[in-house]
UniProtKB/TrEMBL annotation:
InterPro entries cross-referenced by the UniProt entry: NAD(P)-bd_dom_sf (IPR036291)
Name recorded for this polypeptide: HTAI2 Oxidoreductase
GO BP, one annotated term: import into nucleus
Gene3D superfamilies hit by this protein: NAD(P)-binding Rossmann-like Domain
Gene assigned in the entry: Htatip2
One GO CC annotation: cytoplasm
PANTHER family: OXIDOREDUCTASE HTATIP2 (PTHR14097:SF7)
Length: 108
């Protein structure tokens, strides 16, 4: 499950609260194994216009050169991490991967 950095069912922010609620609902299904990825800002090119997101991506793209795992992650890295979680044995019934772990796994 791709969620979001800061996901929390008790958040005051609707986006983060909904992401946290979805995480809980997916875990409640009772899968044998579940991996939740919580990436930071996704660096990608979009077809639709999102000016604020575009500005954030430009800024975070520069910041990523100094702090590559802190505030953003390329979508390709998230995709590779997702594939890696399927191919590698899990570390428990539910595994939550934050942005730094997504970067590390996405390099493998």
């Amino acid at each position: 499950l791709q969620s979001s950095q800061g996901a929390n069912q008790h958040s005051r922010f609707l986006y983060l609260r909904v992401k946290g609620e979805v995480e809980n609902l997916v875990q409640a299904v009772g899968f044998d194994r579940c991996t939740i990825l919580r990436p930071a800002v996704l660096l990608c090119k979009r077809q639709e216009s999102r000016p604020t997101e575009w500005m954030a991506q430009q800024f975070l793209g520069v910041v990523a050169r100094v702090f590559p795992t802190a505030y953003s992650v390329p979508v390709e890295t998230v995709a590779r991490a997702m594939v890696a979680t399927v191919l590698q044995p899990g570390k428990g019934k539910v595994e939550v991967l934050e942005n730094r772990a997504i970067h590390e796994l996405g390099k493998a």
